[in-house]
Inverse folding.
């Protein structure tokens, strides 16, 4: 009887759509602000893009495909989505990622004291989302608050790319 279940399980792994190796899930991590700072201060040869968003933010959701498309078209980019959702409910983010087929890494920033760190990301940031932090390979930063259309995003990338 146990061999029947084993064969049954193997069969489902071989059926297209049931194998996790065909469409691997993007990275998902719950991080602190200190971990975010470590990410942004690490050396990189690429233009790094950190897009702050939330599952309940309509403008954030509208612009996400533009970021994913730009990332696919530019191997010199490193894109990370930073979720501002409630860290006590990470399943909201993971289910959103699956529904929207998000392929880029997503980190949930689990620090609800926004006022203590927003100005550390950028002094001009009011805290509104969507917001995007661009970090050039030399460490210089460029910040954009508000929704980006596809052409606006591509223009920014073209200006900032090494």
């Amino acid at each position: 009887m146990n061999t029947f279940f084993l064969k049954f399980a193997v069969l489902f792994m071989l059926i297209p759509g049931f194998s996790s190796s065909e469409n691997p899930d993007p990275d998902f991590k719950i991080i602190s602000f200190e971990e975010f700072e470590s990410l942004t201060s690490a050396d990189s040869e690429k233009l790094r893009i950190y897009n702050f968003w939330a599952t309940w933010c309509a403008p954030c959701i509208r612009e996400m495909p533009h970021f994913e498309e730009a990332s696919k078209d530019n191997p010199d980019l490193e894109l990370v989505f930073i979720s501002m959702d409630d860290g006590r409910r990470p399943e909201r983010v993971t289910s959103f990622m699956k529904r929207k087929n998000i392929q880029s890494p997503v980190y949930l920033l689990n620090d609800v004291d926004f006022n203590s760190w927003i100005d550390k990301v950028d002094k001009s940031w009011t805290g509104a989302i969507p917001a995007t932090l661009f970090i050039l390979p030399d460490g210089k930063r460029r910040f954009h608050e508000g929704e980006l259309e596809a052409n606006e995003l591509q223009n920014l990338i073209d200006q900032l790319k090494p």
User: Anything to note?
Assistant: Confidence is low (pLDDT under 50) at residues 1-24.
